[in-house]
């Protein structure tokens, strides 16, 4: 890392993304209508995508190495009220440890394409079988500060699956209502300046801290790259 490279947020002393002030919440933006979240509507949207632009494409780079291709699965579980399956990474992971993430990882030479890599990683990480998954398509790449160029692969997942998490990589797996994540009233904007470098990111805590305490639930603090890709998914779905 050179002197001009920004410091990773995770290495800022005492950094806690929950403690960074919220600069704004996008309540003025419309949520994705419920009728667009059905399996047939999602299939139609990916078959004939609208004109749109991703909002978040890349984070400030803070490593000196060649970019690496990666893929994640955006697994939409087709319940009566659709949900999104997410994971919490274990604390010992080298990159993005303990963060909320999509199942995914590097694209290997053996993978046919990004979708094949995302399906393989989902099976390795959480035991999600390929025969439970229908790939719809991909979203534009998202480049992390750790130089991973990630292709989000959006897919439908049939309910009734049984997960088997890899304890080395995954601390937990859980579902979040898709309507919640695609409603910008829950999209919080954060900004922080450290060593002269400005950082901005989204968070989408579910449920929020007060609701979690009231219901005795664990707050899932979705932020960073995962929230950025979800924000792009929102832009795609609302266009």
From TrEMBL:
Could you tell me which Gene3D superfamilies the record lists for this protein? Nucleoside Triphosphate Pyrophosphohydrolase (3.90.79.10)
In Pfam terms, one family for this protein is NUDIX
- Taxonomically, the superkingdom here is Bacteria
Arranged from A to Z, the UniProt key words for this protein are: Hydrolase, Magnesium, Manganese, Metal-binding
Q: What cofactor(s) does the depicted protein rely on?
A: Mn(2+); Mg(2+)
What are the recorded GO MF terms, alphabetically? coenzyme A diphosphatase activity; metal ion binding
Residue ranges annotated for the Nudix hydrolase domain, each copy included: 67-198
What PROSITE patterns does the entry give?
NUDIX
Q: What is the protein name for this chain?
A: DNA mismatch repair protein MutT
Q: Source taxonomy lineage? A: Bacteria, Pseudomonadati, Pseudomonadota, Betaproteobacteria, Burkholderiales
């Amino acid at each position: 890392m050179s002197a001009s490279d920004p410091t990773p947020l995770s290495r800022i002393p005492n950094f806690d993304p929950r403690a960074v002030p919220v600069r704004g919440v996008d309540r003025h933006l419309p949520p994705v209508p419920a009728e667009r979240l059905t399996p047939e509507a999602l299939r139609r949207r990916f078959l004939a995508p609208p004109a749109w632009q991703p909002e978040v494409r890349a984070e400030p780079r803070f490593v000196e190495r060649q970019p690496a291709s990666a893929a994640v699965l955006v697994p939409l579980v087709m319940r009566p009220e659709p949900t999104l399956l997410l994971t919490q990474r274990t604390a010992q992971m080298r990159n993005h440890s303990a963060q909320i993430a999509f199942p995914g990882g590097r694209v290997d030479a053996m993978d046919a394409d990004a979708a094949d890599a995302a399906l393989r990683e989902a099976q390795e990480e959480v035991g999600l079988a390929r025969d439970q998954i229908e790939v719809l398509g991909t979203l534009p790449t998202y480049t992390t500060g750790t130089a991973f160029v990630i292709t989000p692969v959006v897919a439908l997942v049939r309910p009734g699956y049984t997960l088997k998490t890899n304890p080395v990589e995954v601390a937990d797996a859980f579902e979040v209502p898709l309507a919640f994540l695609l409603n910008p009233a829950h999209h919080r904007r954060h900004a922080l300046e450290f060593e002269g470098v400005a950082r901005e990111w989204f968070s989408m805590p579910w449920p929020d801290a007060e609701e979690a305490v009231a219901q005795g639930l664990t707050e899932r603090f979705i932020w960073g790259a995962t929230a950025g890709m979800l924000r792009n998914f929102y832009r795609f779905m609302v266009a």
